Amino acid sequence: MASYNHNEGIVAGIDEAGRGSWAGPVVSAAVVLGDSTELIGLKDSKKMTRRAREEVFNHLKRTAFLGVGFSSNKEIEKMNILQATFLSMERAVSALSLNPNTIMIDGHMVPKGLQNRAIPIVKGDQLVPVISAASIVAKVVRDNHMSLLNIKYPGYSWDKNAGYGVKAHFLAMKKLGLTPSHRLSFKPIHNILCEEN
User: Fold this and answer.
1) How would DSSP label each residue in 152-195?
2) Distance between CA atoms of 28 and 19, rounded to whole angstroms?
3) Cα distance between residue 47 and residue 37, in whole Å
4) Which pTM was predicted?
5) Which of 2, 46, 69, 122 is buried deepest, with most CB atoms within 10 A?
6) Does residue 8 surpass a pLDDT of 80?
7) Chain mean position to CA 30
8) Residue 29 CB coordination number (10 Å)
9) In terms of CATH, what superfamily is 4-196?
């Protein structure tokens, strides 16, 4: 059964992963905690080891309601990273098997499609357990997706860096070139494109 707050009804938390990455999608997760969901271990995903995130994710799959939304790198190019993030959040809510009355979102802005029931909370991933849960789900799902893309496009170490702008990724782009999963409008990628032309 879903966790229910008498003032706010069914409450979902939303967070995203991958906004700053140079490659791959941005992924959002919407989570409604179940009555049996353990709050122990729920904290900002960035402060957890990969193994700890996986363990909490597996617990959440068994005890909570999860919805995940992707916006592809092509959609990021088409509409910009902010709007693509908002789209992934709306998709995550649509993917839930129940309809939350209140949605708590990490950050200070909310998507237009969720404005009538969304509450933005700055540092929500550190302060609100249901948002912390969403941050863990989004991070694990995206990391796993990037590991699959790493098999398709080897050499960029996406299974380790998740497409973020670390030195190994930059050097691989210079050596191997760009893939269809790179975000061409992001400045470091754009600069490499300009050098090639």
Assistant:
1) HSTTS-HHHHTT---HHHHHHHHHH---TTB-TTSHHHHHHHHH
2) 10
3) 20
4) 0.93
5) 69
6) no
7) 10
8) 33
9) Ribonuclease H-like superfamily/Ribonuclease H (3.30.420.10)
